[in-house]
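note to self: dont lose this again. the chain is below, predicted strucutre after it. 120 aa total, dont forget to put it in the shared folder this time
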Amino acid sequence: VQLQESGGGSVQSVGSLRISCTASGFSIENSDLGWYRQAPGNECEQVSMISSGGDTYYADSVKGRFTISRDNTKNMVYLQMNSLKPEDTAVYYCVTEPTFDGGRCYAVDWGEGTQVTVSS
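---
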């Protein structure tokens, strides 16, 4: 099982970025998928998740700006990020079976992460 993020980078405030995650070694079709992020000195934050059935969840901090989607035929999950803010700067991790409990991030599988930097 492997998750590989791509598409991170640097962008100016109010800009957009799309990050992707390619899964290999298994089919994502029956998996809940999600994105976590962690900034230096901060705790892990659940950003968004999408269930195997397509139901979505967004943290209040990104609601209305970020959109999660999945393509089971390509074994990929995406996070479209619009109206980016400097406080969105973090390493973003693609995960399977996310569970956010007691302020801590749990998941079955994790990618290595991709850095997103938003400058003001």
